[in-house]
Amino acid sequence: MVKKAKIDVFQPVHFHGALPLQSMYSDIEGLEIDRDVTVWYTPDNHLREFRGQIKAGRVDTGYNLDYKGSEDALEEMLKQKRGNVLVLACPNVDKIDVIDKAIEAGYEMIICDKPWVIEKDRMGTLEKVIEKAEQKGTIIHDIMTERYELGTIMQGLIMQNDDLFGGLDDNTPDNPAITKRSVHILDKSHLGVERRPDYFDVAWQGEGNADVTAHLADMANLLVMQDRPVYPDNVRLIEDKCRRWATNVPQSNFEAITKTAEKTPGDVYCNGEFVYQVNGVNVGIKVDWALSGKDDEHYSVIRGKKVIIDVVKGSDDDRQHVYITPRGDAEQTEEALKEHVVKLRKKFDDQSINYEKEDGRFKLVLPKGPNHFEHFEQVSNQAFRYLAGQDPYPRSLEMSRLLTKYYLTTGAVTASRKA
Fold first, then answer.
1. pLDDT tens string 189-216
2. Sign of CA dihedral 41, 44, 49, 54
């Protein structure tokens, strides 16, 4: 039996709203996606971010986009409900309310970018949304693109190799076993990205500890818990390790980024860090926002008893690089790494996977994987596989992950304001 899907997109104020449309997912057996997509928006949304991705060639030309602007766009969309799949990259401040209403209206699947909640007092609504989605059988899919990064995948596989990794070490709040840091850039105009002036309003967008940190906490929790559920009872936020600070956005930069002459807000609390424990493992999370740069950066360190795993993506890098530093006998580490590489070649059916020595450590030689934009297609592909029944939807596992990461991020927002 063929599963028919028809997509609605609501109020895409972020370029994320266009990226699930990179494909029509014709490779998924038993799925048929309607070519006609309705984009619902309010008149104050000029859709620059959404249309910028079309201009950049990141939307499949097989889609016919019908734009419906209305002061009551949400009510009109829910009333007409042209589609059964909803793509959301709407304002973070009330995103969870849109999800709630969309479930009530009968959408079968909702694909939504992060963050779903940006303040701790909305966690109760998130819990009710999770419960309602289960009652109605709605698939709610958080766009966690970083799960598809080769660096993240390789870290997890190394951690599972006891001969190479040896279990986690250096596990204190001051020296966490796992640290993850992201450096994002505000001006991405050279990548075809425009930002609304509202993007710099933390009441609308969320503070630094509420936003990108959702990815970092999600990855850390997966690395520690692997295929096991993770609940708020499994984590503990260390409140005196929660901090926030501002990036000053000068008027000239603000105008260049937003393509408007509106007044800059000046200091924007888009940076943050926090430490927490998951299943007894200390994790350090940090996000910085720079005014400009070539591209986003990512740094991750996992300290094992036998090796330290570093994942690095600098602003000039087109991919993440994975480094393995011995903490003991380098020859033993290399022997274990040789065996690990053999397993990787078999797992990924790629004989090009290898390693090389570099400054007293080993660097994995990996194929170039999909870029950040393409990860959205991978996430959406998995969602549509759930919808088509090609893969079972792991509701209880994913909902535990969803609830816990936002429990941490919103808790860090609250605690950092007290610091």
1. 887 777 889 999 999 999 999 999 999 9
2. positive
User: Are 97 and 66 a contacting pair, CB within 8 Å?
Assistant: no
CB atoms within 10 A of CB 349: 7
Cis peptide before 115 (omega within 30 of 0): yes
**For residue 288, what are the CA distances in angstroms to 109, 187, 244?**
33, 14, 10
Which residue spans within 18-97 are E strands per DSSP? 31-33, 36-41, 64-69, 85-88
Residue 353 structure tokens: 């996977």
- Contact indicator for 15, 49 with CB cutoff of 8 Å: yes
Strand partners, 243: 273
| Token pair listed for 134 | 């289960």
Name the nearest CA neighbour of 86 among 67, 101, 68, 64: 101
CB half-sphere exposure, 33, CA atoms < 13 A: 27
Count of beta carbons in the 10 Å neighbourhood of residue 37 = 22
Specify the residue for token string 């509202």. 198
Q: Is the pTM of this model over 0.85?
A: yes
How many Cα neighbours within 13 Å face the side chain of 223? 35
- Domain 3-144+374-393 annotated CATH 3.40.50.720: yes
pLDDT in tens, 112-143: 999 999 999 999 999 999 999 999 999 999 99
Residue pair 358/350 in contact by the 8 Å Cβ criterion:
no
DSSP code of residue 262: P
Name which CATH class applies to 147-369.
alpha beta
The span from the CA of 119 to the CA of 210, in Å, is 8
